[in-house]
Each structure stands twice: as C-alpha cells, then as structure tokens.
Amino acid sequence: MSFMRLWPAQASDYAVRVDHLVIGFTAMMALFVLPVLVALAVFIWRYRRGRPADRDHRPSSDLRIELTWIVLPFLASLVIFGLSARLFFQARTPPDDALEIQVTARQWMWKFQHDGGQREINTLHVPAHRPVKLTMISEDVIHGLFFPALRIKQDVLPGRYTMLWFEAAHSGTYEVYCSQFCGTDHAAMLARLVVLDPGDYQAWLQNAGGLDDLAAQGKVLFRQYGCSGCHDGDSGLAPPLTGLYGRRVALNDGSQVLADAAYLRDSMLLPQKQIVAGYGPIMPTYTGLLDEETIQRLLAYIRSLTPTSAPEAR
Known about the structure:
Elements (H helix, E strand, L loop, with lengths): L12 H34 L16 H29 L7 E8 L2 E6 L4 E3 L1 E5 L4 E7 L4 E5 L4 E5 L5 E5 L5 E7 L12 E6 L1 H11 L5 H11 L2 H5 L16 E3 L5 E3 L2 H9 L22 H13 L10
C-alpha cells in the first residue's frame, strides 16, 4: 500500500532540506556510535574467558584523544542545532503574500475553505510555487494535519487557531493523514493534497465556483446575526470594526491585546473575557450559535474592513 512507504516522495524544497538534515544527523550518530560498537565487539572477542590477554587495568589516558572526543561531537551538535533552528523558524514564519486557506477538522473529516468561497472536504487544491498558509481549528478533539511528502505536520486544536504553511514545488497528488489518535475512525481520517500548476489552479478555482468569496459570505452573516446593529461605526454601542484586524486594542483592565483571529473569535464566543476600554459588557455570547466555519467567514469579512470600507448599517 502506498501509505506504507517508509520514505515518501519529496514535494517541496523544505522537504529536501529536512531530508538532508535527517540524513546528516543519522550519519553523524553512526560516525560516533559505530567505533564504539566495533571496539565493543573487538574487546568481547579479545578478552573472552580462557583467552590469554593482557588484563592490566591500570588507568592510562591521552589528552588529545579525550579533547577530540569532546570537541568534535560538540561542534557537530552545534551545526545540527543551527540547521534545525533555521528550518524551525522558516516553518513558523509564513510569507506575507501567502495564499490563506481556512481548515476545520472534525471527526472524521477535513474541511477546507478558500478565500474565493470554494469549499472542499478531504481534498485540498493548491498552486505550485506559491506559499500557502493554513489557518486551522478543530470542532471537537485534537487532530493533527500531516503532509508526509512535505515533511510537515501541525496539531489542530479545539478552541484555538494553529497555523501551517508550505510551498509545493512539484505538481501531483499527495497523501494527507491525521497524526493524532482522534477516535475510532482515526485511521480513516485521510485526505488528498492536489498540487496544480498555476494556470491549472486558476482554472480549478473558476470551475469549483463558490457563490461568493468568504468576505462576502461573512458580510451577509454580519447582518443576519445583528452584528451591524451595535458595531456600526456611528452607533457608539460597541467598538467599530473598520481597520480593527491586526491592531492593538486597549481593554478596560488597562491591558492591551492584539486584534487577531483568536481575539476576535473569543470576542464572539466569550464576549465578557476581554472588554474594550470605554464600552460596557453588553454583548451577548454566540456560543452554540456559530460553528467554526461561520466564524471563519465572519473573520474574513472583518479582515476586509479597511479604513475606506466600513460595514453597512443594519
């Protein structure tokens, strides 16, 4: 079976560097372990019971050998640490122009939402040679999105956003797994990553359709749930949302918080948790009314509200 391959194909330059790091680390370990194993075998043979051999155990040492045995592994470990840290920071720092896709995990499926409104279940289409950022959350238990061909994975948590990004270098279809035991059908929680050439990806977006993009869908939901009644810029009942995303917000307790996706999600589900300075605790909770996909659409709309684009009045 294809998913039993021990060394899946590389689908990105990052995967190539991870492979080189793993191979280099393994070679370094072999370099230091094999001489010990060889010496162990030689000593077992030479000093076995009944064999005449010099068994003088008086200690002797060579400072040059001891320093070499200490310094070389230390320097090699520093090199491995430096390369590993570089890969780690690269994996945690998506480019600003990355294509953002929303991911919702639930028992036992993966749901993907593109900014253009296209939705997929257990299949993710992305363009080659373009950074792709996945913003992920779970509706139930801890899952883990694992792309073996990309050598990356990230836990997907309930009630908290996590992020994963990649840039696929080769078109093709690759396997996707859940790396966390998430229930009885964990082994069946599979998906496909379909990497297309840029032109083919644009054709897929057009054919996949989508009634509206995520921001437009969020705009409809914003009015439907009555958010515009208070968050309209002229109402004075609640903070205006125009230009809010990505800005620091002063709270009633004197602290500040960054208005990112996590803060805005909490403001919808736990509105009394962090109250904006100058406003009262009047917002009702939407816990139980909004699912994670609906929240993602509302967040897309809030992100789209630039200082020149205010939300419509109710």
